[in-house]
Write a structure and sequence with these properties.
The chain is an alpha+beta fold and 146 residues long. Helices cover 25% and strands 32% of the residues. It is elongated, with a radius of gyration of 29 Å.
């Protein structure tokens, strides 16, 4: 009887050992597949991005920023709603989801919501912002360029 119990324990140990080895092989294969590059022709290296600011802002309908400029430019993306933007002495433009808006460094501009619709915008910039005077109602409420 004791011999039979010992044989069952050995079989159980060998079954467990086989299962562990099979699991180890599967993990190694999965790890190798995960390490394959998602890039062709070389793998990009990550650069320092500590100074980059990323904000998601919700402007209520009728609201906008003051005139301002960015030391290194600004990238805007509208996620929801409808917005407006304008560079100093340029046409008033309507912003909608999915279209990137880049303003070069040092260019005075403003952006915000449409008069009748909230807007959610993603903004990315680096460096200082120089804030200027408020945008007048006459400038804000002008007809956007089509």
């Amino acid at each position: 009887m004791a011999g039979k119990a010992l044989k069952e324990i050995k079989m159980s140990r060998s079954s467990v050992l086989t299962a562990l080895i099979a699991t180890g092989i599967a993990i190694t294969m999965a790890s190798a597949a995960a390490q394959q590059s998602n890039f062709v022709g070389g793998t990009p290296s990550q650069l320092d991005a500590k100074a980059i600011r990323t904000l998601r802002l919700k402007f209520p309908a009728g609201s906008r920023s003051n005139w301002h400029s960015h030391a290194s430019g600004q990238l805007l993306m509208i996620e929801e709603g409808k917005g407006r933007t304008q560079e100093r002495n340029g046409p008033l433009l309507e912003m909608t989801p999915g279209v990137p808006w880049f303003t070069k460094a040092g260019i005075e501009h403003w952006h915000g919501a449409a008069p009748d619709q909230d807007v959610v915008q993603l903004t990315i910039y680096e460096g200082d912002v120089k804030w200027l005077e408020p945008v007048t109602d006459a400038v804000y409420k002008a007809a956007p360029k089509k």
